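Q: Here's a chain of 190 amino acids. Please give me its 3D structure as tokens.
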Amino acid sequence: MLGNLLSNIREKKGLSKTSISEVTGINVGHLTHIEKGERNPSQKALRDICRALDIPYQPVSYTYDKELTEEQKRFNLIDSVPYNTVPLVTGVMDMVICPSSIPDASMAFIMPDDTMKASVPRGSVVFVELNTIPAHRELGLFKYQDSIVVRRAIYRKYKIILKADNLLTKDIIIEDGSQLTIIGKIHVEN
């Protein structure tokens, strides 16, 4: 996923691998292997690449060692990963122990509503693996239009459905992925 993201960003910015190579000192062949996902860059190399692309390192680093499924590639969800933004937190209540069973958690919050009450009751501590695209039927934290929502990602042939557990909550149907920002994959400690 990291290679796909870096390639996507580089192409959108109209930069060549040669220009990135000149700034970073990483040879073009190695950059090609990174973008194809055949090799992972060192942290220093990733920082250098991010600097050359003029993007922040940390949001991109969350995609390290992550893989895209075929459905995620089909929907081009790499375009929905926010590589240059971070969640805005309006208040920090406390710190919470991150369970070893959720090693990639980046942050946690308390579920504010009953939209996912069967799998995530209101008041539950929810852990977020930032910039990780949830697989089919996995829980995710999404920004859709102007709302941040926790939903189950359902991948259909021509659309993505963000499904709530609560039958009174309307599902969100995504036919154009540009409307969607994937903040991360959700984990709940059992």
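Q: Can you summarize the key feature?
A: The radius of gyration is 18 Å.
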